[in-house]
Design brief:
single chain; five-stranded mixed sheet; 19 helices; about 10% strand
């Protein structure tokens, strides 16, 4: 029997009909709501303006996309990004309004492929009661942990280990060193693992695969970075579950060492409000937040300090003063951290000027009226922090690294949201700052450094140093003391 054949004109008609539906679906939202939505353009069908929006640019600039759109349409405009009609906001008032109305008028809404990698129970993508339970657990764990001597000593010990390995090296790739530091800290803090244990190596290998897929083209085809990342997440989950089971077994056997354990996992296992899968997802979120974001922040701080001798000198003086109040090998404590005022200024300025986090994804749950325009129900909303942090009308000399601005400028306001805001403000932000501060204490006390070559942080939109931030380093532990006595 001959195969069924369709006339060529019918095939063309079907293709045209499908393309017409795609184009209509793309552009129709632009003309709804009687033009009350902000001005803007939707770009190409399907892709919209996504590729232009994601075009790499210096992280301490807003990039051509925002520059041109804000110039043409104002600080709030409509576009078509990540396959959805979108309101983009570079306005501090609207950004603050969005963050403060999480769960009421707006809801976290990352592109579907992100859910495939992070998992439906990830605190980053979860909504409603699930997110509330995960966040409450995170806040509780952070408040219990952050000032505990064991946690602070682990951070300092790992920082000293990393820096000791530099003593005979003329050059280091700092981004690699920062990631090594933050990963070792987070696996010790969350899972109680040391770098020497086989589980640590296994988790790191899978975690690096996971990270590469998180920022790749979301195609689930065997062999692609995205597909490998989804499988890597599954393997990490299995490893974490095995660690939890082993910990639980040893606790049931009245192991004295486990009874005295005080890491995140030990406390997390006692939380009755979370299911087993939610606990595993919580561990993965902790690894993600404590690894990449903190290491990028460290690189930003070291990069900007290398370009600001005056700021570096004041930082050295602050840390030398703290060191002079302690015995030779006495460890840092929470009171020492609270004395690091200028260090906090440096960290805040690196967060503002370097823009570790560029924007967040939200969706309007209903029609929202703001000023004289409408945010239509179902549209995505992108509050862009970069534009607010680099706005010269909000920050004097906005395009300069100037830590002294934080001596008088409010750190918790609409103009500065480096860790988000509202119910989705990063619960581990204080822990990240402690890690950076303790690492800086030993870095400035023992090393001088300079950039080997020009290597500016670039937003892809995630932030990275294309060459890894190569530093020429010199071990000179007595220089700071001699210079300031």
């Amino acid at each position: 029997m001959d195969g069924i054949s369709f006339p060529f004109w019918l095939v063309v008609l079907v293709i045209c009909f499908v393309l017409g539906l795609i184009i209509l679906n793309h552009f129709l939202p632009m003309f709804l709501k009687h033009g009350l939505a902000p001005r803007g353009t939707f770009g190409w069908p399907l892709l919209g303006e996504t590729l232009w929006f994601l075009n790499p640019h210096s992280s301490n600039s807003v990039g051509n996309f925002l520059l041109q759109h804000c110039s043409r349409y104002g600080k709030v405009f409509k576009s078509h990004l990540f396959f959805s009609p979108t309101i983009v906001s570079c306005d501090p008032e609207l950004n603050y309004f969005i963050l403060q109305n999480e769960g009421k008028l707006f809801q976290c809404s990352y592109p579907k492929p992100i859910h495939g990698i992070l998992g439906q129970l990830s605190m980053l993508v979860a909504v409603g009661e699930t997110h509330k339970r995960l966040r409450n657990a995170a806040l509780s764990l952070v408040s219990i942990t952050k000032s505990k001597p064991e946690f602070l000593h682990d951070i300092e010990r790992i920082a000293i280990q990393i820096l000791d390995s530099w003593k005979d090296k003329p050059q280091v790739i700092f981004c690699e060193e920062a990631r090594k530091f933050t990963f070792n800290v987070i696996v010790k803090q969350v899972l109680g693992l040391t770098p020497e244990q086989p589980e640590t190596t296994k988790i790191l290998r899978d975690f690096l695969t996971f990270m590469r897929g998180l920022v790749s083209l979301p195609l689930y085809i065997p062999g692609t970075p995205y597909a490998r990342a989804v499988k890597a997440r599954s393997r990490i989950s299995s490893t974490v579950k095995a660690i939890i089971e082993d910990r639980r077994r040893r606790r049931n056997n009245n192991n004295a060492e486990e009874r005295n354990n005080s890491d995140f996992l030990e406390i997390l296992m006692s939380v009755d409000t979370l299911s087993e899968d939610e606990k595993v997802s919580f561990v993965l979120d902790s690894l993600l937040g404590g690894y990449e974001t903190t290491s990028v922040l460290m690189a930003m701080v070291v990069h900007f300090l290398g370009q600001s001798p005056t700021a570096l000198q004041q930082l050295e003086i602050e840390h030398q003063k703290i060191r002079s109040m302690k015995q030779k090998n006495e460890k840092l404590n929470w009171e020492d951290y609270q004395r690091m005022d200028f260090t906090q200024n440096v960290i805040n300025e690196a967060l503002r000027y370097g823009n570790v986090v560029k924007f967040v994804h939200r969706k309007a749950l209903k029609d929202v009226k703001f000023r004289d325009y409408l945010i239509p129900s179902g549209w995505k909303v992108l509050p862009v922090f970069t534009a607010v942090h680099l706005d010269p009308s909000l920050h004097a000399n906005a395009l300069q690294f100037h830590p002294w601005r934080w001596e008088s400028q409010d750190q918790t306001c609409k103009k500065f949201t480096p860790f988000g805001g509202g119910s989705r403000c990063c619960p581990g932000s204080e822990l990240a700052k402690v890690e950076v501060a303790f690492f800086l204490h030993h870095l400035v006390h023992n090393f001088r450094w300079r950039n080997e070559e020009e290597d500016q942080p670039v937003a892809y939109p995630y932030v990275e140093f294309p060459k890894g931030l190569v530093l020429n380093v010199e071990f000179c532990p007595d220089d700071v003391e001699k210079k300031h006595h």
